[in-house]
Write a structure and sequence with these properties.
mainly alpha, 13 helices
Length: 298
């Protein structure tokens, strides 16, 4: 339930990102998003200090490199590569498909680095679910031009950094709760975002303080930033962190295939978007593949 909820939140975060980008640049959005998230996580962690699940814990010095590495891979590198992928590839559909291939690389990294067991059910389920995801994303799309090779490389690097982030989560000692992990990982990433933001755009307030000058579009963009901070950055990251540490890198990442399914259903029910029969078949294959990939032997 935790990993499904995280994917549900992330599946509609694209709408919030597009809304926020109407008024803010990519780096400004990332800085505001993660700054607000850090402040909220700090307040929750300090207010719930006596709670083992929500209290903010102190890090051991020997564990700090793991948190720095996790923050470097995701959010920092992942979001930079993701942005370049959408910019470099001709088709957003192709970009979305390539960026949803975490389940394909996850078993490889999990076995090579963690020696995490990958069963035949994992492989079969991932294959079926990935086929369904590709059908869901590509059926009905007309623009299949890939764009330049650097965009393809950026997509591969984005997916790789996301999977490596999952691997590092498994390496972090079990004594740390999910809130502590997400707080310090995102704090490390924020320290990397601030210099890039300052160099590219200069240190300034990205939001006009003149309330009378605020347009409806700006209010909507701010609402998008708030959604991304409170839900996509805090809630979803904590739930996904908890899930990966419980069920493993391979089983946790296969649920990335369900994100396009949630997006398609959201567009169908909220915006009455037509879904061809092939997309419904794709949804069915995603669900079947997920069940198979979670099956235990014996």
């Amino acid at each position: 339930m935790a990993v499904i909820t995280s994917m549900l939140i992330w599946s509609v975060s694209g709408i919030a990102i597009k809304t926020a980008l109407l008024s803010f640049s990519n780096l400004s959005l990332l800085v505001m998003r993660f700054t607000l998230a850090i402040v909220v996580l700090l307040l929750i962690g300090l207010c719930c200090q006596s709670n083992a699940t929500l209290g903010l814990q102190k890090l051991d010095k020997k564990d700090i490199p793991l948190f720095l590495l996790a923050g470097f891979f995701q959010p920092c590198l992942y979001y930079l590569f993701e942005t370049y992928t959408y910019d470099a590839l001709s088709s957003p559909t192709i970009a979305e498909t390539l960026l949803s291939t975490n389940p394909v690389l996850a078993p490889i990294f999990a076995w090579l680095i963690l020696r995490e067991r990958v069963t035949r059910y994992n492989i079969i389920g991932i294959a079926i679910s990935t086929i369904g995801m590709v059908m869901l994303v590509l059926i009905g799309s007309t623009n299949f031009r890939l764009g330049n090779a650097w965009g393809l490389l950026a997509a591969f690097l984005a997916v790789s950094t996301a999977v490596l982030y999952s691997v590092i989560l498994r390496r972090i000692p079990a004594k740390y709760n999910s809130l502590t992990i997400v707080f310090y990982v995102q704090l490390c990433a924020l320290f990397l975002f601030y210099p890039m933001w300052g160099i590219k755009e200069g240190i300034h307030c990205p939001i006009s303080l003149d309330i009378t000058a605020w347009t409806t579009q700006l209010w909507q963009s701010v609402a998008g930033v708030v959604y991304l901070s409170l839900f996509a950055t805090i809630t979803a990251f904590i739930l996904f962190c908890y899930s990966v540490r419980q069920i493993g890198v391979t089983k946790g990442n296969v649920f990335n295939n369900i994100r396009p399914l949630f997006t398609a259903l959201f567009m169908f029910f909220v915006f009455d978007e037509h879904l061809p029969a092939g997309k419904w078949i794709g949804m069915f294959l995603i669900i079947v593949g997920l069940f198979i990939s979670q099956k235990k032997i014996g």
